[in-house]
From TrEMBL:
Pfam families: Y2_Tnp. InterPro entries: Transposase_32. This is Transposase IS801/IS1294 domain-containing protein. It comes from Sporolactobacillus terrae. One of its GO terms (biological process) is DNA transposition. Residues 4-175 form the Transposase IS801/IS1294 domain. One of its GO terms (molecular function) is DNA binding.
């Protein structure tokens, strides 16, 4: 049976440390040699852990020279003995709506090492960002110098032409056309959804979304033509202006000042309109009678 697999390589941990691991999206079924679809409910991840350990260690040995093996072999043996149950594999049962899972996983696989929403402060010398400590499941903060932050970040930039996402089985380029035909036929008969991903869509930025709607580039000043530097975002929620993103304390203070100014202007305009309405109501209409 041939399942469909989309694998994404991540090299980073929550603190931007080097923590290489692979995320996989696996179809809950596959195509048999007879060209029929066959479903399965669960992957025995205990067995998968041992197999994953064996494959990884074999691949490392395969790409070592004889001299390198002499130095690395003790480390490989130690990695094998200290992980008696195999390398870590998290393979939970499918839960929730399939489409929602696909949207979430599609974004997660292509996500960057750190998002703007995690950066809390930048003062020109240090960067403070939040991360989730998986040991106690608590959100914590880490402050690094600019140099240390950049050093941690750039190590996760892949080499040119290096593919961090791969497609295997019925999602591979070779089997894609055949798989689509079989899946469409299977869906018509069973009326059930099968995990299928043609491509993982990268979430567009606010700037890209604005340009796509036919508007001008919001990062270019319409008057002087200079390029704006992104510092944050303010959105309207339930009639109130709310800061969504602020890169640093200075940016937050500036956005707060702008919000206060706009709120003040809105109040002044409202008061002016009310005075005009009251003035209109208090007018006396005089109609002279001519005989």
């Amino acid at each position: 049976m041939t399942p469909g697999i989309i694998a994404g390589l991540h090299t980073f941990g929550s603190q931007l440390n080097f923590n290489p691991h692979v995320h996989m999206l696996v179809s809950m079924g596959g195509i048999t040699r007879k060209g029929e679809w066959k479903s399965y409910d669960f992957i025995p991840f205990k067995m998968l852990r041992k197999q994953w350990q064996t494959v990884v260690l074999k691949l490392i040995r395969k790409h070592l020279t004889a001299k390198e093996k002499e130095n690395v072999q003790p480390l490989l043996q130690k990695a094998y003995l200290q992980n008696g149950e195999g390398f870590y594999v998290h393979a939970p049962r499918q839960r929730g709506h399939v489409k929602e899972q696909l949207r979430y996983i599609g974004r997660y696989i292509r996500r960057p090492a750190i998002g703007l929403n995690r950066i809390e402060d930048y003062d020109g010398h240090n960067v403070t960002f939040t991360y989730k400590d998986k040991r106690d499941n608590q959100e914590k903060r880490l402050t690094l110098t600019v140099e240390a932050f950049i050093a941690r970040l750039i190590r996760h930039i892949p080499d040119e032409q290096f593919k961090t996402i791969r497609h295997y089985g019925m999602y591979s380029r070779k089997n894609k056309k055949l798989s689509k035909k079989l899946l469409m036929a299977w869906q018509k008969v069973t009326k059930r959804w099968v995990i299928k991903v043609n491509k993982v869509l990268r979430r567009r930025t606010w700037r890209e979304r604005t340009i796509a709607t036919g508007n001008k580039d919001p990062h270019i000043c319409p008057k002087c033509g200079n390029y704006y530097e992104y510092k944050g975002e303010v959105c309207l929620e339930e009639g109130r202006l709310v800061i969504k993103v602020a890169l640093g304390r200075t940016a937050r203070e500036y956005l707060e000042e702008e919000i206060r100014y706009l709120n003040q202007k809105t109040t002044q305009i409202g008061q002016k309109e009310n005075r005009a309405k009251n003035k209109q109501k208090n007018r006396t209409v005089f109609l002279p009678i001519v005989s």
